[in-house]
Amino acid sequence: MITIFEPTRIQVSLHEGTVFAVPDAAGVTIECRSGSVWITLDNDRRDIVLAAGARFDCGVHQRALVSALDDACIAVSFDRPVSLALPAPAAPARRGGWSWRAVTHGMSPA
Predict the structure, then answer these.
(1) In what order do the strands lie in the sheet with 36-41?
(2) What's the CA gap between 33 and 72, in Å, rounded?
(3) Which residues are CB-neighbours of 33 under 8 A, at least 6 positions away?
(4) pTM of this prediction?
(5) For 16-44, what is each residue's pLDDT tens digit?
(6) Do 6 and 54 meet the contact criterion of CB atoms below 8 Å apart?
(7) How many Cα atoms within 13 Å fall on the side-chain side of residue 13?
(8) What's the domain range around 71?
């Protein structure tokens, strides 16, 4: 779940194993609010691991990938307006595997 506090700060809840991408991490601060996360930057050999309460200031124009090592919550602050691709909500499960579109177009599950 993503909560937008203001145009330059968001809070993201991540399940274990989930990856959150920041396309251009210049001027971005990532704070781990709970759990722990692993941050990797393109073309950077460092392993950056944050526990709850720790923060990392990204200063380079590189993509940052934030991986949740366990269920975690992060706050991401930007010093400038940015555009992020937010994940699409999960599609609801279909009963029996058939969609209403298939039935209305002459197809039936029988």
Answers:
(1) 19-22, 64-68, 36-41, 48-51
(2) 7
(3) 11, 52, 53, 72, 73, 74, 75
(4) 0.69
(5) 999 999 988 999 999 999 999 999 999 99
(6) no
(7) 3
(8) 2-82
